[in-house]
Amino acid sequence: MVALLALVLILAIFGGLGFAVHALWIILVIALLLWLIGFFIGGVSEGGGRRWYGRW
Asked: For 12, which of 2, 31, 37, 40 is 20 to 30 Å away at the CA?
């Protein structure tokens, strides 16, 4: 019975960890898309060249 509870606990931890990693990948992709949109929309500096780091 203890082994079964330990197995269920381990599976719950790994399931939650997998979901968290998947959610972080989605957040990373969204952030990258927003950065690229900001780069191409407002990436022209006063000197006329493009900056690799965005608006700052």
From this structure: 31
Identify the DSSP state of 45: -
State how far the Cα of 10 lies from the Cα of 1, in Å rounded to an integer: 14
d(CA 26, CA 32): 10
What is the C-alpha separation between 56 and 51, in angstroms, rounded?
9
Query: Which region holds residue 54: left if phi is over 0, alpha if psi is between -120 and 50, else beta?
Result: left
pLDDT tens profile 2-56? 888 888 888 888 888 888 888 889 999 999 999 888 888 876 555 555 555 655 5
